[in-house]
Amino acid sequence: MVAGGGCPEGKHEVTDIVVDRTWRPPAGGLGIAFLMFALTDAVCAQVPIPLVETGQHTGVINSIAVDRAERWLVTASEDKTARVWDLNSGRLERVLRLPIRRGLAGMLSAVAISPDGSLVALGGATGSAGAAHPIYLFERHSGRLLGRSGPYLDLAIQLVFSPDGRRLAATFGGGSMRILDTGNLWHELTISAACRAGSHGADFASDGRLVMGCLDGTVRLFDTQGELLGERKVGDRPSKVRFSPNGQHIAVGFERAPFVQVLSGRDLTLLAKPDHRLVTTGGLSQVAWSHDGERLYAAGTFQRDSVYPVVSWSQQGAGAPVLLDATTDTLSGLVPLASGRLAFGSYSSVWGILDAQGRREPQALQPVLDFRDSADRFSVSGDGRRVEFSGTRWHGDQWSRSLARFDLATRTLETEVEPEPGLRLPGSDGLPVAGWEYKEGTLFDGNRVPVLAFGERPHALDQADDRSGFVLGASWSLRRFDADGREVWHTFLLSSALAVNLSTNGRFVVAALGDGTLRWYDAANGAERLALFIHAEDKRWVLFTPEGFYEASAGGDALIGYWFEPERDREGQYVDSAQLSGIYFRPDLISRRLAGDEAAIAEAVAAIGDVRQVLAGGLPPTVTLLSPAEADSSGEYELKLRVDPANAGVGELKLFIDGAEVRARTVAPPGGGVVTQRLSLGPGAHVVAARAMRADGKVASNEVQARVTVQVAAPRPVLRVLAVGISKYDDASFRNGVKFATADATKLVERLRAGAQGLYRDVDTRVLVKRADTSLARIQAELDALVQRSRPEDVVVIFLAGHGKAPDGKYHFIPADFVYDGDQAFNGQRTLSQDRLELALKNLGAGKRLLILDTCDSGTAAQASRDGSSEQKDAIVRLMRATGRYILAAASPQGKALEDGFNGHGVYTAALLEGMAGRAVSPQSAMIDVDALANYVADRVPELTRAKGYEQRPMKTSFGQNFPITQRVP
């Protein structure tokens, strides 16, 4: 049985096997150029695939190229993308996407850019069905696919344009070379005689001659018409070959040998073998000449003190070798630049530049945790919900490895932790499995375990505690075997499985992949259930299902998007998650999957549709900023936009100030046009952003931003508080668990008033605790009035204590007059729903706004299939994400938040009151800000509740600005 993420079980098939029996052990990457087989799940090709997008590569860079004017650098990677970079600024200009599949298909091994920088050619495992691997040609500035050649049985390993840009030479894993006419949609001008083994290198001289390196140990030279001039035996497995700028010399690098040869560019005679005494191990597969031809460079798998250097020789290779520290992994490309600089690509997924003195210029750090050699620290809880892992990171001058832990149930990431007792490490004792540690193959009871195709390598293994079988992580698949060594299932992966672990309850196989993700697979059938990506540097994270539903930390949703199969001869389609977050940001569905509620996932997919179906409704509008992108203001800013509809009309206009959504008082015309809105801003620097929705409200446009600085003196704010505490409900099923709500609301307002002296110009409070004041109509009226009174500079606090529920994945605060008569009660206008709260917060505008929710689930009304507090937590996360405001929430177990008291108050509010009294800050501090208060409550509430036999962990948003809220009150 075969299964895979996002596809129904049994709906995959092997459609592409191309075998090359040459191999080199990967020093950091997976060696796409040397594993010539492709695994595809073509039957499920139309299902969109959620992909991690960091703005950088998440896999090995296999090839780099630069245009003649050195404006653009392009990179091709095993992460199945090519990227175009502005060489001067290092800014990512464009991502080029081809058809991809789970497995090898889509991984790129070769890239070339035309001398004028207008065209980019890509090659590799580009076949989408059958033994077909075309070479793709893109227009650089637009990313548009212009055409494709072939397809070919072999994978293209090296691509290089001729100096005039009219020809493209391609060498292949099988040993052939083809010369293509770029101006005639890939008409083949010449097909050379094949090498007797694969070819990894070719280069044009300035006069059009061509040289080719063959893994059979020869170098071949061709004239301008592609006719063979001669060949020379040079040694074991020559790799890259490069003409000197004047065409008189050819540098030859070797895959496994620690030396370089220099041949004549005219007749291939050996001219020099540069001094290699500093290179003691590894190979120097990559070679390059400086622009003036006086300096020769080489690099590859050669390593010294955890760094992979470039070897540099002066005098055309005759000088003494000098080592230039470059990067942290195998170097996969060298390109000389003007002024003595040198660009390089590497298996560490980043590229960089050495300056004329051989020093590394500042470069982006690797965004992906490196899970290689981490299996001995990859532990999982019995239910698979807590995972402990270590990944290496490069800080620019040294490696570091630390242990981290993620809890799926609480969605919490802990870093720099000590090993947690009780978590299970992978095991390899008990069954007769051997050989996998050597990456050459796996033996069971002395017999080879079958693999999908020759060349796939095992990377990790774990045996079930009850010896019922084992799981094997390999180059592009995850496989489960029974106790007799028979395969139960295998699943195609987007990257290699570097560590695996079977949860002891038998539900999950957890794997750490080469793309930096942790993934949870169904242990029964291999179907992917969840994936987690944690950014190596800033610790943002995103947790997502293969259907595309996700939850993320602040800023983490920018790390995910959706790829889906394009129409034939079109570039791959990718949609950023921000354009669909209103639909697919669903923490509640993550929890449903953890609870094993697959029916809820299926219902959501049926109701919403996948990304392709959503986008089938048409494209969103395009928004252009017409007002200045940088502006100074005295408090008013006129935002001017042009909205251009696509083929699906124009819907709601969404405006944001510092990430918080505010009400748009104007509507874009259905046919598009210019939109103007005047915004009132408080003192300081602000980011004003705008997006326009498609007419049906499902897909957002691009976002435009303006930075506005208000330079007027800040007036003293007014503190405006609306506190609602409901201890009495008309519906008997809501009468338990809220006896402290009234006291909590009353005391909180008293404490805020006491700390306001000298901090605020005035204090404006409304306390709603009586039955007559806690109906939905009265609460809504007070919210509307609060909106009318509030100014941009004011501090606004809304406190809600009582019952909260989330039967539909959205938060509902239950008013006193609510009567439950079925789930339709939540679909009508009977609660202070999330939609109402969102609208109130939008209307309040941006600024210092705080929402505090001290609510619990009664546990009797509208029973859910799992813990109601978990549903409420997920809904509050959605509310936090949707509003961009600072929100604090109790997030209590059922019936506990307000029933178990402390000092006459609910536990959560009791902790708030302690913090406001001064415990949230040091004795030397008088001012208490929201962050300090939230941090104190986060520590204090678990401490108070553990004494009562359970643990409550409060929630706080990472959105919204921090600000002082009160002063120490004795």
Instruction: Determine the number of helices (DSSP H or I, runs of at least 4 residues).
Output: 11
Count of distinct strands:
68
Strand-residue proportion: 35-45%
Regarding CATH, which class of the largest domain? Alpha Beta
User: Mind telling me the C-alpha Rg?
Assistant: 31 Å
- What would you say the CATH architecture of the largest domain is? 3-Layer(aba) Sandwich
**Average predicted local confidence, pLDDT:** 85
- Taking pLDDT < 50 over at least 5 consecutive residues as the criterion, the unreliable ranges are 1-45, 859-868
Distance between the termini: 68 Å
Count of discrete structural domains: 5
Organism: Pseudorhodoferax aquiterrae
Domain Peptidase C14 caspase: 721-958
Pfam families: Peptidase_C14, WD40
WD repeats: 54-95
